[in-house]
Amino acid sequence: MTASTERLLRIVAPVVAGLLLLLAWLGLSLIPTGRARLVPGPVEVLSAFFANLGIIAEDALVTGGNALVGLVAGTVVGVLLAGVAAWLRPVDAMVAPVVAAIAVVPIVALTPILNTMFGASSQFGREIVAGIASFVPVFVNVLRGLRQARPVQRDLFTAYAASGSQQFRKLTFPTALPYLVTGVRIASSLAVISALVAEYFGGPADGLGTAIAGYSKSGNAALAWAYVGASIVLGLIFFLVTVLLERLTTRRNSS
Amino acid sequence: MTASESTAVRATGVERVFGTAKRSVQALTDVHLEVAAGEFVSLIGPSGCGKSTLMRLIADLDQPTGGTLEVFGKSPRQARLDQDYGIAFQQSGLLPWRTVLANIALPLELHGVPSAERSKRAAELAEMVGLGDFGGRYPDELSGGMQQRVAIARSLATQPKLLLMDEPFGALDEMTRERMQTELIRIAKETAAAVVFVTHSIPEAVYLSDRVVVMSPRPGRITQVLEVPFGRDRGETLREAPEFFERVTAVREALHGTPVERANER
Question: What is the per-residue pLDDT for A1?
């Protein structure tokens, strides 16, 4: 296969896959199942999306805002705690099992409790959920990154009589940076998902998740799917921004 | 020249024991060694003979459990803080996010040398190791041999009077290795620095050194010191010379502890 046909294939293949999916969707939407159809058709969903663009954007801002606050807070706490754990072995021994526990517990399950704690009109519970979900990958990755400087590099810095802070600024931190950015990229998707799913468990009556739950219960399936589409867009925005960040910082760290 | 300046390294009864009192390993025992200023000394021996350990003790990357060690008449710690030595390992240990020049300048940067002076010196050193055109490149764009040149240039950044090298050519192919050896002889001559060179290659030790220190394991110790009186002006022709092979044989016999003929008969 020549290079040009390969390049063509790389563009054509996903387009074909997308068209096939759209056809399947259209087919599914035409199947009658009693009083309602299985799914609303693509045209209905799209028109519901654009007809309600204003309120969808408002709700996306609420969910995106919660995810962003959680992501930033989780990243800050994750970096600080990883720094302390890398520095002091006993702290690592104390924190590691807690992080392992947090990683396996479904954090969103805490939402009803948090909503009760902070009041049903506060976004704080949702932000905490997004924060805890973001914290785990950031902590794990940064802690690993802080330990990636090779023994030979440590020896060299010792031989140069570098101070502790010089060693951190010029070796440990730059080595850990790509790991931090990878952690943030993983955390960004988790933050959006958590912030959105947390809305299914009550709290203020705004946000994409609340709308999806509400409209699907009230039978407005087209609008519910339009909101699902908006959630995908929101998740993609978070993902793409962090991928860009990763590209910018890891250009020269590969070897 | 005072006594402290004419002697680069002086080890007296140096000992290094690893582990606890119950299960200890004698990595080095009763090591006496003097390296004169400007002298090229190789440490050779099988793995576990403590040659790298001895170099790490001189570099103050590790501390002896007995005996005394002086570097230019000071403690190894003081010599390290004063940047009296430069160091290179088998792995180049280059920082992948820094260019060749920025890697070479790193030791200067850590000691607050002004930026202009730093880049001038780094450019000179890059030129010296034959990487003048590669200053702006990143380590992952260079071959293993070129990376090792950068590491050597970096070890020379602070203009040290002592170079410590732990198998710096150990990971290179034979042809690159021989070329690097010839260049190292030139660099050592140009800088007039003493060199302590750890290797497990007999021809390499003979080709480079004024003296070859033969070591032996369990416990790690110096068994013999051989002179290699070929002077500092050595060229590629030395590799083919009969007196070169004589010395290689002598080192080999010192390493094996028996004449080589006997080893062949077995």
Answer: 58
CA distance B71 to B80: 9
SS (H, E, C) A121-169: CCCHHHHHHHHHHHHHHHHHHHHHHHCCCCHHHHHHHHHCCCCHHHHHH
Nearest to A153 by CA among B95, B165, B148: B95
Is residue A212 domain-resident? yes
- Give the list of residues 6+ apart from residue B237 with CB closer than 8 angstroms, or none: none
pLDDT of B265 reads 47
Range of the domain at A49: 45-250
**Distance between CA atoms of residues B182 and B129, nearest Å:** 11
| CATH code, domain with A180 | 1.10.3720.10
* DSSP state, residue A172: I
ipTM associated with this complex = 0.88
Instruction: Tell me the whole-structure pTM to 2 decimals.
Output: 0.80
Contact (CB, 8 A) for B239 and B211: no
CA B115 distance to own-chain centroid: 29
- Asked if B106 lies within 8 A of A160 by C-beta distance, the reply is yes
In tens, the pLDDT along A225-241 reads 999 999 999 999 999 99
Sign of CA dihedral B94, B99, B100, B106: negative
Q: Is B168 on the interface with A (CB under 8 A)?
A: no
Q: Is any Cβ of chain A less than 8 angstroms from the Cβ of B80?
A: yes
Q: In terms of CATH, what superfamily is B3-82+162-168+193-265?
A: P-loop containing nucleotide triphosphate hydrolases (3.40.50.300)
Question: Closest approach of chain A CAs to the CA of B77, in angstroms?
Answer: 9
